[in-house]
Specification:
This protein is an all-alpha fold. The chain has 5 helices and no strands. The chain has a single domain, classed as Flavinator of succinate dehydrogenase (DNA polymerase, domain 1), CATH 1.10.150.250. Keywords: Chaperone, Cytoplasm.
Length: about 90
C-alpha cells in the first residue's frame, strides 16, 4: 500500500465500505472483493481516493473500474492510478 500511513480507524473503513454499496451489481461485486482483500491494509491516501471514486455516478465509476476510461482532471493522480489497479485486480 501507500507510505502515507495505515488507515487504522475501523469506523472510517466501515463507513467507506457501506458507501461502496452501489446501485449496480457489478460495482458491488468489485468493491466487495476489493475490501475482502485490502480493507485492513488501506492507508489514509487510499481512503481519500476511494471517497473520491464513491462520489462518482454508478456508470462513471463502472467505466473506471472496468478500464473503459482512465481518470482525468482532478482524479488523475498516482494514488488514484494505484487504487484503480488494486480494484481492477481484486
Amino acid at each position: 500500500m501507500n507510505d502515507s500511513g495505515h488507515q487504522s480507524d475501523p469506523l472510517r473503513r466501515a463507513r467507506l465500505r457501506w458507501r461502496a454499496r452501489r446501485g449496480l451489481l457489478e460495482n458491488d461485486l468489485i468493491f466487495e472483493r476489493f475490501f475482502s482483500r485490502y480493507e485492513h491494509d488501506l492507508s489514509d491516501a487510499d481512503v481519500g481516493v476511494l471517497t473520491q471514486l464513491l462520489e462518482l455516478s454508478d456508470n462513471d465509476l463502472m467505466d473506471l473500474l472496468l478500464a473503459r476510461k482512465e481518470p482525468d482532471g482532478e482524479l488523475a493522480s498516482p494514488d488514484m492510478t494505484r487504487v484503480l489497479e488494486m480494484l481492477r485486480s481484486a
